[in-house]
Each structure stands twice: as C-alpha cells, then as structure tokens.
C-alpha cells in the first residue's frame, strides 16, 4: 500500500497543495481523536447515563415512557433473570427480534449487562432466513415480539434455542393502556398470528423474576464481543460482523462529537428514531449515542404508516431525526407533512443510502434545515464519515472521516489512487469490526494485514478531503469498456418531477457487453418511457443512458429503505 491516507488524526494534509488541516471543517469544538473511552462496557454506559440523567425521559413509544433510571433498573432485572433463572453465561448468544418498542432497549441493555452477545434479527425475516441466522449464531435464547412468535415456533426444533421469551407490543406501557394496546393488536387488528410455544415465558414475568434475583457483574471490557450483526457483507452473502463493546462505544463517541456541539446542552433534545434499532445505524446513533447524551428518543414502531408518523412528529416537536433518503421522500410526499410546525427541527441526519439531490432540496425548502449525509457500513459499527453540521452540507458527498478514523481510496492492488480518481473505499479505526463470525476466509478478504477494511464501495475524494460514494464495486455496469455507476443514473432520473423512485441494473447487450436498464416508480401515469429517455439525454452521456425503462408499481427495498438492485436483477432474469 502506498501513499498517505486521509485521516482525522493526520494533521496538515497535502490534498490540493494547501498546508492546512482539512479536519478543521468540523470546527474547533470537535477533537481530531476521541481519547480514552469513558466506559469499559455498554452496560456501564447504561448505569452512567442513569446517574447523569436520572428521571429524564430516555425513550417514549405509543404514549408510554421510560426514564434513564427506569431503563437501568429494568435492564438490571432482565440481566439477573438471564443469569440466574435461565443459567446463561458470559459469551452465550441471545436473539432479539422486535421492532422499535420500549422493550427493545431494556432487552438489549440487559443482555449486554449479563455478558451475553446480542444477535439482532429482523422481524420481517422469512423462516428460512431466521433458520440460517440461528444455525450460524447458535443462540441459547430469543426475545421475540408476539407478532412474530409463529415463525419462531416453526424454526425452533431445528435450532440451538433453549429459552423463548415472548413480549407483546404494549408490555411496558402503564395500565390500563397496556391491556388495551395488547388487546387491540391481537384481537382487533389481528396482528398476532396464532402460535404454540408452551415453554415460553412472558417478558413481564421475566422482569418480575429478575427483580427477586441478585445481579452478578461479569466484568465485561472493551474487547468482549457485544453484537453479532448480520449483513450482506462487502461481497454478498449473509454473514455476521463481530462488534465489540469497544467498537460500539468508540463509534457513538466519534459520531456524537459534533452532534453535541450542534444540539447544545442547555435543554434536553428530542430525537426521532424512525429507523429500526435492530439496524446498526439506529442502534449506535439512537440507542447508544443519543442515549448517552441524555436525549429523549421517540421510538417509531411503524414508520411506513406515514400519516401516523406525521402525527407523531407534530406531537413531539423533535429537535432532530435520523432517517434514510426514501423515508424523507415519503414524508415530503405526504400532504399533511407540509402543514405541521417543523421549526424545532435543528438536525436531520441521513444514512444507509445516498441522499437524492431532489429530496435534499425539497427537505430544505419544507423543513428549513439541511439533510446531513453520512456514510457507514455494518462492519464499521457503522459510521465512518459525515458532513459537518455547522456548515452547509456538500450535497452528494458523505462528508469527511470521523475523529480517529483513517480513510483512503485504493485501486485493485490496494495502492492509493490520486485525488479525483475512483477506487475502493478503505477504512481503519477503532470502530472497525473484529471480523466475521465463523468465517475466516471472508474476514481475510475484507480486512488487510495492516488493519484496513475494504468496504466494496467505490468512492472519490476531492481536494478538500470530502468523499463521494460512486457506487458498489460489484454493481458497476461495464458498457463498451466504460464503468457506469447505477447511482448516477438513478440520481439523474430522480431529478424528473414525475419519478418517485428509480433503480438501475445491467442487462446484456451483444455489442456493448452490458447496458443500463432503469426501473421506475412513477408519480403520475402520464410519464412515458420516451419522455424520460429524452430527459436523461440532457443529463447523461451516451453510454450511461438506460437502453430500456420499465415502469413498476413498487420498488423493492430493504428494511431501511435501500433499493435492492439484486431483486431487480432477479426480476429481469426471470423475465428472460
């Protein structure tokens, strides 16, 4: 590897020939390095936060609240139950499978406090996906929302799971609301399919049993594993990133360094957690970073209910929100969103996918604040870089690296490329995972001997040190020998006022080898393929223009709203 990496620790950087530290974009209130961690474990973070913030509201959901002190007490009870009643030991795996409800942080923090390793499972997993994750992680226990317990029943016989803890959506709400919410979910809305798990125990029963036990501190440190976070990885195929307490503690500290300066501490800030906590972005930022900072986090259980989401925004008057570009677009398309008062909103951070320029501009016009775009991946706990919050964001970029983070752009031989040249983004820092669970071959493929994580994302760096993601390495379209990045085509299409969503994939072509095909969800049926192609002709050079445009009713996306080009490719293959 040659050249000098661009680093938050590197001091003066020669990029652009200017003898000045590019990290000064963050301003004097953000350090270049994060320094020693204040806590040794995430369990200690919870107890320290309870000491600092006490009876202030930590989380709210469906009209119920938990203070910092209550979260600490309930997490300790749950930890004691896991240790003494279930006999779980340090390093055992426990699955948590639920959306954003008050039980999530209690179960998550309690499991970590007991020294267990948490395995997050998407509630929308199919039984096949669940079986694959459970076989790989070999968990001894699972905490599952009753709505999804029927799937646990189906896969349970083929797993290592010994203990099932079932919770209902309203379990931590006060009475009589608890009974009413659970009754409506199960009997009125029919949201809980029938299941039979005779040996399962209720979450509230577990907390009651834990209250009678004495918690035993397992003395967890920063090198202990906290999380197996399943991901498609940098080269495809589901695998689990092994994230330690130190990885997650470091990343929330890195990310929050500038957020503290933006929000200030004169009052408690209210933050919307619209992305699921089982996704590592919301987990690190909302459940850890904003929690430690003392914010009130509003958990949104179903962000797809846009009208209900807007009502919650109107009610809570948040200071900030974490989302993805597609969710921001959905809010902007909801007429009632423009009618609510968003003057309190000082911070909007987007991750998970590139922010569309059209969405960023509409958000600024409607809300009055900029969308701050960042970048991360599961293997980096996840945040790597972000646009500084005290200056106008450079739309289309992922900002500059976080404190204590090295980032560089490499060619296929892992040599650093010149400024302005596209190459693979590589990351090094305290947030980078230990490796993949039980997968040494894939670990060696993405972690170099000198500690660089090869992300699989193609990026360029400008002369100021700002990075821009061009696309995924494996999703490049090679047309007549030229690299075409699907994201560029999608961005151009999204600029058309009648395009709601766009996804580009390669299709075979006898002459060019590959050419782009564009799938589009229209805002209005009047948009034709010819009109869109004519629009793109003004914005894309010849080999980048989609040869075919297909209109579809719904764009396939993952749980955080990222377009699943893999599904589009499968759809195309099936049609041939």
Describe this structure in words.
This protein is of the alpha/beta class and 576 residues long. It has 3 domains: 266 residues, Rossmann fold (3-Layer(aba) Sandwich), CATH 3.40.50; 158 residues, Rossmann fold, CATH 3.40.50.980; 100 residues, GMP Synthetase, Chain A, domain 3, CATH 3.30.300. The chain is built from 16 helices and 27 strands. The strands form 5 sheets. Strands 3-2-12-11-13-14-15-16-17 form a 9-stranded mixed β-sheet. An 8-stranded mixed β-sheet has the order 8-7-6-4-5-9-10-20, sandwiched between helices. The protein has a 5-stranded antiparallel β-sheet with strand order 1-18-19-21-22. Strand 25 and strand 26 form a beta hairpin. Helix 1 runs antiparallel to helix 2 and helix 2 crosses helix 7. The chain is globular and about 70 Å long.
SSE blueprint:
Blueprint: E1 6-7, H1 42-53, E2 57-61, E3 64-67, H2 68-85, E4 93-97, H3 103-113, E5 117-120, H4 127-137, E6 141-145, H5 149-155, E7 163-167, H6 177-188, E8 201-202, H7 203-211, E9 225-231, E10 239-244, H8 245-263, E11 270-273, H9 280-292, E12 296-299, H10 306-316, E13 320-323, H11 325-333, E14 347-350, H12 357-367, E15 371-376, E16 383-386, E17 400-401, E18 406-410, E19 423-428, E20 435-436, H13 440-446, E21 453-461, E22 467-472, E23 477-479, E24 482-484, H14 486-494, E25 499-509, E26 513-522, H15 529-537, E27 548-551, H16 565-575
Parallel strand pairs: 2-12, 4-5, 4-6, 5-9, 6-7, 7-8, 11-12, 11-13, 13-14, 14-15, 26-27
Antiparallel strand pairs: 1-18, 2-3, 9-10, 10-20, 15-16, 16-17, 18-19, 19-21, 21-22, 23-24, 25-26
């Amino acid at each position: 590897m040659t050249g000098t990496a661009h680093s938050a620790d590197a001091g003066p950087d020669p990029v652009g020939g200017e003898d000045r530290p590019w990290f000064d974009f963050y301003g004097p209130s953000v350090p270049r390095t994060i320094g020693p961690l204040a806590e040794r474990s995430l369990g200690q973070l919870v107890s320290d936060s309870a000491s600092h913030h006490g009876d202030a509201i930590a989380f709210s959901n469906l009209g119920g609240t938990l203070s910092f002190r209550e979260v600490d007490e309930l997490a300790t009870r749950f930890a004691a139950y896991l240790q003494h009643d279930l006999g779980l030991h340090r390093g055992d795996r426990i699955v948590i499978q639920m959306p954003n409800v008050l039980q999530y942080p209690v179960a998550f923090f309690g499991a970590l406090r007991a020294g267990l390793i948490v395995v997050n499972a998407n509630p929308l997993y199919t039984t096949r996906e669940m079986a694959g994750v459970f076989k790989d992680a070999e968990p001894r226990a699972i905490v599952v929302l009753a709505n999804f317990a029927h799937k646990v029943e189906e896969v349970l016989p083929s797993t290592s799971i010994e203990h099932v803890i079932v919770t209902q959506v309203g379990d931590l709400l006060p009475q009589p609301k608890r009974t009413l919410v659970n009754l409506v979910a199960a009997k009125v809305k029919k949201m809980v399919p029938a299941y039979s798990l005779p040996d399962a125990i209720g979450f509230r029963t577990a907390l009651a049993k834990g209250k009678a036990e004495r918690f035993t501190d397992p003395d967890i440190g920063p090198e202990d594993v906290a999380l197996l976070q399943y991901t498609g990885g940098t080269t495809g195929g589901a695998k689990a990133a092994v994230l330690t307490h130190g990885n997650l503690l470091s990343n929330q500290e890195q990310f929050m360094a500038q957020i503290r300066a933006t929000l200030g501490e004169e009052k408690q800030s209210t933050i919307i957690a619209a992305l699921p906590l089982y996704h590592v972005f919301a987990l690190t930022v909302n459940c850890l970073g904003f929690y430690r900072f003392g914010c009130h986090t509003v958990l949104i259980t179903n962000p797809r209910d846009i009208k209900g989401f807007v009502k919650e925004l109107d009610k809570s008057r948040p200071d900030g929100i974490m989302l993805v570009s597609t969710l921001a677009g959905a809010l902007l398309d909801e007429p009632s969103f423009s009618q609510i008062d968003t003057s309190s909103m000082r911070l909007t951070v987007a991750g998970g996918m590139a922010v569309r320029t059209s969405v960023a501009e509409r958000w600024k016009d409607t809300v009055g604040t900029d969308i701050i775009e960042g970048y991360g991946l599961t293997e980096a706990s996840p945040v790597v870089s972000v646009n500084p919050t005290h200056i106008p964001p450079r739309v289309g970029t992922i900002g500059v690296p976080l404190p204590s983070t090295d980032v560089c752009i490499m060619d296929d031989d892992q040599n650093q490329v010149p400024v302005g040249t596209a190459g693979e983004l590589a990351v090094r820092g305290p947030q980078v995972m230990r490796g993949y669970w039980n997968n040494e071959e894939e670990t060696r493929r993405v972690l170099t001997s000198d500690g660089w994580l090869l992300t699989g994302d193609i990026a360029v760096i400008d002369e100021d040190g700002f990075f821009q993601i061009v696309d995924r390495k494996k999703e490049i379209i090679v047309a007549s020998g030229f690299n075409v990045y699907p994201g560029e085509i999608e961005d151009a299409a999204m600029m058309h006022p009648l395009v709601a969503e766009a996804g580009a994939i390669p299709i075979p072509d006898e002459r060019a080898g590959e050419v782009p095909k564009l799938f589009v969800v229209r805002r209005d049926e009047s948009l034709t393929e010819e009109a869109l192609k004519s629009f793109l002709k003004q914005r894309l050079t010849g080999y980048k223009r989609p040869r075919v445009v297909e209109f579809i009713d719904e764009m396939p996306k993952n749980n955080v709203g990222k377009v699943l080009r893999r599904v589009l490719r499968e759809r195309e293959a099936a049609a041939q």
